[in-house]
Amino acid sequence: MSKILSQKIKVALVQLAGSTPDKAYNLQRATSLVEKAVRDQPETKLVVLPECFNSPYAVDKFRQYSEVIGPEGESYKALSQLAQKLKIVLVGGSIPELEPKTNNVYNTCMVFNEQGKLIGTHRKAHLFDIDIPNGITFKESDTLTAGDKSTVIQCEYGKFGVGICYDMRFPELAMQAVRQGAFAMVYPGAFNTVTGPLHWKLLARARAVDNQVYTLLCSPARNTDSNYHAYGHSMVVNPRGDVLVEAGEGEEIVYAELDPAEIEQFRAGVPITKQRRFDIYPDVNGTK
Ligand SMILES: NC(=O)CCC(=O)C(=O)O
């Protein structure tokens, strides 16, 4: 049987202190930290940036900072060149994407391969619309449009699923990617200081355990000068649910090794992937 992850790979999460109002600065800062990630640990094969890594995370700013996804876009160009120069798979966090035909704005992740080729995009499918009394109110849908598909990326080492932040609250998205053979779920995210302590780690571990895959969550660093206080705590969780590495709140790069044997051994011991009873939950199977 072929492995869902072809070899051990080192991954890096760049918990960037970007998201300032100065987009050029944010892009330059992201570039230099991705370069540092690979310079410090040259065996790194896959690097992840956070959600909205080069714009403020603010409903009234998404359109102003939006870009077309294509070789003419400045973020596209910078990320593509970076991936090619460093010979890495680069999960480019997310940016506000302007779709010129419809004039809609999406929250979109671009993924580039070692040749600098765009190998996939994910438009955030579940918009962050919440209202917690005395906690936090946020309504992405005021200015963003939701994506309408789940995303599985084929890279040199196998397949991985991509979701953006609030997407991680929806187990079906991860389950669907894993049923297509994904070895990991990768979530650029920006939880906050209200919901982060409640659910960030819990969801990372839950998505890992319920699918027996790695989960990679990459947050911006916390910036208390901005209106939105990101939680930080970027982390990698293994298929058993152990947190392999967890960042603090400031700017930081964290690394972990993903090992195909970890997936296989844990799945062999607890074979839930073979024991599912879609006959008794046909609504999950999509047949009802
Ligand atoms: N950027 C987001 O989607 C935030 C999601 C979040 O904080 C949550 O609690 O869910």
UniProtKB/TrEMBL annotation:
<feature type="domain" description="CN hydrolase">
    <location>
        <begin position="9"/>
        <end position="260"/>
    </location>
</feature>
<comment type="similarity">
    <text>Belongs to the carbon-nitrogen hydrolase superfamily. NIT1/NIT2 family.</text>
</comment>
<dbReference type="GO" id="GO:0006528">
    <property type="term" value="P:asparagine metabolic process"/>
</dbReference>
<dbReference type="GO" id="GO:0005739">
    <property type="term" value="C:mitochondrion"/>
</dbReference>
<keyword id="KW-0378">Hydrolase</keyword>
<protein>
    <submittedName>
        <fullName>BN860_07008g1_1</fullName>
    </submittedName>
</protein>
<dbReference type="GO" id="GO:0006541">
    <property type="term" value="P:glutamine metabolic process"/>
</dbReference>
<dbReference type="GO" id="GO:0050152">
    <property type="term" value="F:omega-amidase activity"/>
</dbReference>
<dbReference type="InterPro" id="IPR036526">
    <property type="entry name" value="C-N_Hydrolase_sf"/>
</dbReference>
<dbReference type="Pfam" id="PF00795">
    <property type="entry name" value="CN_hydrolase"/>
</dbReference>
<dbReference type="InterPro" id="IPR001110">
    <property type="entry name" value="UPF0012_CS"/>
</dbReference>
<dbReference type="GO" id="GO:0006107">
    <property type="term" value="P:oxaloacetate metabolic process"/>
</dbReference>
<dbReference type="InterPro" id="IPR045254">
    <property type="entry name" value="Nit1/2_C-N_Hydrolase"/>
</dbReference>
<dbReference type="InterPro" id="IPR003010">
    <property type="entry name" value="C-N_Hydrolase"/>
</dbReference>
